[in-house]
Design goal:
Elements (H helix, E strand, L loop, with lengths): L2 E5 L6 H9 L4 E4 L6 E9 L2 E7 L12 H12 L4 E6 L4 H12 L4 E5 L11 H8 L3 E3 L8 H10 L15 H10 L2 H24 L1 E2 L2 E2 L4 H19 L3 H37 L2 H6 L3 H6 L7 H6 L4 H7 L6 H10 L6 H14 L7 H27 L19 H35 E2 L2 E2 L7 H8 L1 H4 L6 H12 L4 H7 L2 H6 L3 H13 L4 H11 L1 H29 L2
Helix pairs in contact: 8-9, 9-13, 9-17, 13-24, 14-24, 15-16, 15-23, 16-23, 16-25, 17-24, 18-20, 20-21, 23-25, 24-25
């Protein structure tokens, strides 16, 4: 069975070519010892089965700096392949030829010139093949041009060694568009507008929240209403109260949570994947990357961080489509510091309940956790870079992809595969942990209980109360925050069941503000942690959880001390 790897510079449409060759039947797995994902698929041609492997894109051809690039080079040079398909594009011909020269010293090469629909090559396939000394195929992945010919060459097991060279200028129209759009002032403004547009769309479509009032057809409120009706029907049809609660609150609650999060992920991923495949994100961040990377912010992760304001889970999940191991990892680790809509609900409810006697402080109290979270995000970036050695990687030698309209079939294939991975590798974990919260809140030392104050969750809150004593927070507030580790949406319900809101009303202002700052980013929920684990691995996820908790406690304590000093 012939085995071929697809290699090439980033931004040349290599992954689109892979999906044009293979369709939806793709297996994904991490490269051994890394969190770098490699896609594999089997295709058939004339009775011959061919294995095709999509390697990560390479930006720094001469001196790879990112783990993605090192894995791609290692596989291309040392992997068990019958040949390597090196993919070029009008804007990255020189870089692809340099890569093909290196690879052809170890493996037979087929040279693919992609995106011929954007710029017509100045020579024919035969002329370029004769010049380079290897088989050449002109393709357009989005229009399926040249796919059959490339498949035929791989089925025959052909390839060659680069013996010549050719130079082509980036087409003037492509260069002009890139030059205008990539200018930093325009790029920054467009990135912010793009991120805010995505955020407003997600908030309106999913939560029903708009600057002009509630949107009546949002998914989350509609699904919550359906879910509550189903839960009530289950309880009404089951006589045993314990079994009814298990089925309705535990199992159905877990399934309902997975559905709501999955739709969030689907919508956010569809948007980010469209912008990434169209070349827009790469083009907008092209000239900003070195400046942002120097500040410790993943350039292409900016949009994901903005998505995190609506929900952290899709923001982390969409980070998987970004180029560069360092960019993906740092984005995934930083997203949980961005307060989501569920945390905004906590800020608002607590501020309104606890500050009724000083209503002029309510806007400040709601703004404070956001300010603290974004300030700590910069600190966290420095901590992660120092402790794990990961850093955002700016674009190197390869220009960004020209703007294009993604192919619908390939785009939907990528989206379907990404969602399948989410369901199988993240969705199951979410369901398990959400279901695990049920026995904590419905059982206690005395057995099954409807009184949450007698549950094991309450006992856990009393056990950790001394840790929150320096912040002036009682046990029932601490217990509510423990539930937030599972899911932030349950915190307000737990606070009501444990009478924690009543306790907060009686607390002094420093303790209330300390609670707001701590709750802003003390931990990602298990859904977000599952997504971080899928992207970053177990070690980085554990590091993230520990650092986040420590920074949240430190920020909350500083808030408590500073506010206490100001009130003297």
């Amino acid at each position: 069975m012939p085995r071929y790897a697809l290699a090439g510079p980033a931004n040349v449409g290599k992954s689109s070519l892979f999906y044009a060759l293979t369709g939806i039947y793709v297996r994904t797995a991490n490269y051994p010892g890394t969190t770098v994902e490699i896609r594999r698929a089997l295709i058939r041609r004339g009775g011959v089965t061919i294995e095709v492997v999509d390697l990560p894109g390479i930006i720094n051809i001469k001196s790879p700096v990112d783990e993605d690039e090192r894995v791609a080079f290692r596989e291309a040079f040392e992997g068990n392949y019958d040949g390597v398909v090196v993919v070029a594009a009008p804007h990255a011909t020189k870089e692809a030829i340099e890569l093909a020269k290196l690879v052809s010293q170890k493996k037979p090469v087929i040279f693919v010139y992609n995106m011929v629909d954007l710029a017509k090559p100045p020579w024919t396939e035969e002329e370029l093949s004769k010049t380079l000394g290897v088989p050449v195929v002109f393709t357009s992945a989005v229009k399926r041009v040249g796919i059959d010919k490339l498949t035929e060459l791989m089925a025959r097991g052909v390839g060659g060694k680069i013996t010549g060279d050719v130079h082509i200028e980036v087409p003037a129209a492509v260069a002009l568009k890139a030059g205008i759009i990539a200018r930093p002032p325009f790029a920054v403004a467009t990135l912010l507008l793009l991120g805010l547009a995505m955020l407003f769309f997600l908030l309106a479509f999913m939560e029903g929240v708009t600057p002009f009032g509630e949107f009546p057809y949002a998914f989350i409120p509609t699904w919550d209403s359906i879910s509550e009706s189903v839960a009530e029907a289950i309880k009404a049809s089951v006589g045993d109260p314990v079994l009814a609660s298990l089925l309705a609150d535990g199992l159905w609650g877990a399934l309902s949570t997975v559905v709501s999060i999955s739709v969030y992920v689907l919508v956010a991923l569809a948007l980010v994947l469209f912008f990434e495949d169209s070349g827009l994100i790469g083009l907008l961040t092209y000239k900003l990357e070195r400046r942002l990377a120097a500040l410790g912010i993943p350039p292409r992760g900016l949009v994901c961080l903005l998505v995190g304001v609506s929900c952290n889970v899709p923001a982390v999940s969409t980070a998987r489509v970004l180029w560069g191991h360092g960019n993906r990892l740092l984005t995934a680790l930083l997203v949980p510091y961005v307060p989501c809509v569920a945390r905004l609900a906590i800020f608002t409810a607590v501020a309104v309940a606890a500050l009724t006697k000083t209503p002029y402080l309510i806007p400040l109290a709601i703004f404070l956790p956001y300010a603290a979270a974004f300030a700590v995000l910069w600190v966290a970036s420095a901590v992660y870079r120092l402790m794990s050695g990961v850093k955002p990687v700016p674009a190197g030698e390869v220009p960004p992809t020209p703007l294009m309209l993604p192919n619908g079939r390939i785009y939907l294939t990528k989206l379907a595969i990404s969602m399948k991975d989410f369901f199988t590798k993240v969705g199951l974990l979410i369901a398990i942990f959400v279901a695990a919260l049920w026995p904590l809140t419905h059982f206690g030392p005395g057995g099954y209980t409807e009184d949450m104050a007698a549950s094991y969750l309450a006992e856990l809150g009393r056990a950790i109360e001394p840790l929150f004593a320096p912040l002036g927070l009682p046990w029932n507030v601490a217990a509510s925050l423990v539930g937030g580790w599972v899911f932030k949406e349950v915190v307000l319900g737990l606070m009501e069941g444990l009478k924690a809101l009543d306790a907060l009303v009686a607390l002094p202002l420093p303790s209330v503000l300390a609670f707001l700052v701590f709750s802003a980013f003390y931990s990602a929920c298990v859904a977000t942690l599952a997504a971080v684990y899928r992207t970053a691995g177990a070690r980085a996820t554990a590091l993230s959880a520990a650092v986040q908790l420590a920074l949240a406690y430190a920020a909350a304590y500083l808030t408590f001390v500073a506010t206490s000093a100001l009130m003297r």
